[in-house]
From TrEMBL:
Pfam families membership: VWA (PF00092)
Species, as recorded: Winogradskyella psychrotolerans RS-3
Protein name (database record): VWFA domain-containing protein
Entry keyword set: Signal
Entry-linked InterPro entries: VWF_A, vWFA_dom_sf
Entry's transmembrane regions: none
PROSITE patterns recorded: PROKAR_LIPOPROTEIN (PS51257), VWFA (PS50234)
Length: 270
């Protein structure tokens, strides 16, 4: 007999990331997975959340890729705190890069960096080490590849998500994004899209349509939005404490001793 969990609401709010305001009209999008009921056939088996992150690493992402990485990792971090009553779902993350000319052209300029894994440290390390080069971005191809390569399983009670981030037209490549979306929908995988640029441009280049086809969510990252510093009454005290903390470090090894002597004698560091 199936045990039904309470509704799991996973809301990833973008309001805290000023870089993720939708456009110059300050239109904000909340990326939310709401009213999702997770069931399991056994009380001994935790439900699973499987997420594939697909990141455009072409040259056109220069200046945007750090914001995209931060947004993807924010999503992972939020999902890691998800709860179903007393249970924590097993979170598994996979990572792909696409659009990089260093990658195999025959495979569509894409690469599986990590298959589904629960090692968040390794996933974070791999995500933030990705760099840009070249530019042939095929969204339909990378979605289709992730759907076919990864072990999503056939348990309809699991939550299966794709988050794809990029800034070129969603329609590029020889795999139609509509066909990829249809395959995702057939496998109970929801595709969420993150356009790195103007909100309306993302709509006109079909990023929103790509999300709508699987009942996913669409958002945009505005690279022109400045980061806002909010002053705190504790700023001065924190700076003073930081200065005191810096005096507690102990130098060791040959290099450490040299730097310590230079600091004591107010000489340039070697």
């Amino acid at each position: 007999m199936k045990t039904q969990f309470k509704t799991l609401i996973l809301a990833v709010s973008l309001a805290s990331l000023t870089a993720c305001n939708a456009n110059s009209n300050n239109r904000n999008e909340d990326l939310a997975i709401s009213e999702i009921v997770i069931k399991t056939t056994s009380k001994d088996k935790n439900p699973e959340i499987k997420v594939a992150l697909l990141l455009d690493t072409s040259n056109s992402m220069d200046g945007l890729i750090d914001q995209a990485k931060a947004q993807l990792w924010k999503i992972v971090n939020e999902l890691s705190y998800a709860k179903c009553e007393e249970q924590s779902p097993n979170l598994k993350i996979a990572l792909y890069e696409y659009g990089n000319d260093n990658l195999n052209a025959d495979e569509g300029y894409l690469r599986q960096v990590i298959a589904f894994s629960d090692d968040l440290d390794e996933i974070s390390k791999s995500l933030f080490s990705l760099t840009t080069n070249g530019g042939n971005e095929y969204c339909g191809k990378v979605i289709n590849t992730a759907l076919n390569q990864l072990e999503w399983g056939d348990n309809k009670e699991d939550l299966k998500l794709i988050f794809i981030a990029g800034n070129e037209p969603y329609t590029q490549g020889n795999v139609n994004y509509k066909d990829a979306s249809k395959l995702a929908h057939q496998n109970d995988v929801t595709v969420n899209t993150i356009f790195c640029g103007d909100y309306d441009q993302g709509i006109s280049t079909k990023w929103k349509d790509g999300a709508d086809l699987t009942h996913g969510n669409y958002m945009a990252i505005n690279h022109n939005q400045a980061t806002v510093h909010v002053a705190s009454p504790y700023d001065d005290e924190i700076l003073e404490l930081n200065k005191k903390l810096n005096t507690t470090y102990v130098a060791y090894g040959t290099s450490g001793r040299k730097k310590w002597k230079c600091k004591q004698n107010k000489m340039p560091m070697p």
